[in-house]
Write a structure and sequence with these properties.
alpha/beta; 7-stranded parallel beta sheet; 8 helices; 44% helix; 14% strand; SDR_fam
């Protein structure tokens, strides 16, 4: 393949992406990656002020002519999901890429002590809301025009942790959901997932409370992940470079699961 063909396959010019949970961390980095590849990007999150600030930051670092649409809303609310998809299509012209990044984890420790309302909230946000966004994207654009979906899973969905068990169970369900959607929506819509290890974000602060060096010591790469590590993989998965990849969950974990531990 020539360099020109490689660049073409990477290019997202003319495509529109919706990234959920994009006011900070991994979601914001994914939005920046897609913008750098030429896509127009809509971003969602619950807090309007933080989302508007993220949109300004993204535009400041984006190529000339880039477009960012900030759409405040709760991923767990059906009306918010529908509004985000409708406004993306209406204002940016299409919806070719959906990145389901929103995730929560209010429950730590033994499942025997877990608050079941908290567990329900985890599954509703991490799994049910993700399916809801895919349904809206399908109805609003992708069902007729095709597209690419990436779901943010976790290595905790691939191996037991004992610490974030309810979260891990929800991500395991998300991995199975990804496979089922890939089978049902092919060939015009590709659906994949990425499974990060610990990434240096506010979301992961509780997991590195004992210190970053100690947390990173178990990784063959001897460092924790960055949001950009995840974002570059997502950029690949929604591009034409991955046109024969669907139903996969790809680890971006610095080799953590290769050690047999977690």
């Amino acid at each position: 393949m020539t360099a020109a063909n490689t660049a073409h396959n990477r290019d997202l010019t003319g495509r529109v992406a919706l990234v959920t949970g994009a006011s900070r961390g991994i979601g914001k980095a994914i939005a920046a990656e897609l913008l750098s590849r030429g896509a127009k990007v809509a971003i969602t999150a619950r807090k309007p002020e933080a989302l508007a600030e993220a949109a300004r930051d993204l535009l400041a670092g984006a190529p000339d002519g880039a477009e960012v649409l900030d759409l405040p809303g709760n991923a767990g609310d059906a009306d918010s999901r529908r509004d985000a998809v409708d406004r993306t299509v209406q204002q940016l012209g299409s919806l070719d890429i959906l990145v389901n990044n929103t995730g929560i984890n209010p429950v730590y420790g033994s499942l025997m002590d877990a608050d079941l309302d908290g567990v329900k909230k985890i599954f509703d946000t991490n799994v049910v809301a993700t399916l809801g966004f895919v349904q809206e994207a399908y109805r609003g654009w992708m069902g007729q025009h095709g597209g690419a979906v990436v779901n943010l899973a976790s290595v905790a969905g691939l191996r037991s942790t004992g610490v974030i068990a309810a979260y891990g169970a929800s991500k395991a369900a998300l991995i199975r959901l990804t496979e089922e959607l890939a089978w049902q929506l092919g060939p015009t819509i590709r659906v994949n997932a990425v499974a990060p290890g610990v990434v240096k974000t506010k979301f992961a602060e509780a997991l590195v409370a004992a210190g970053e060096d100690k947390a990173a010591a178990v990784y063959p790469m001897q460092r924790l992940g960055t949001p950009e590590d995840v974002a570059s993989l997502v950029g690949f998965l929604v591009s034409d470079s991955s046109s024969w990849i669907t139903g996969e969950t790809i680890r971006v974990d610095g080799g953590l699961l290769a050690t047999g531990g977690l």
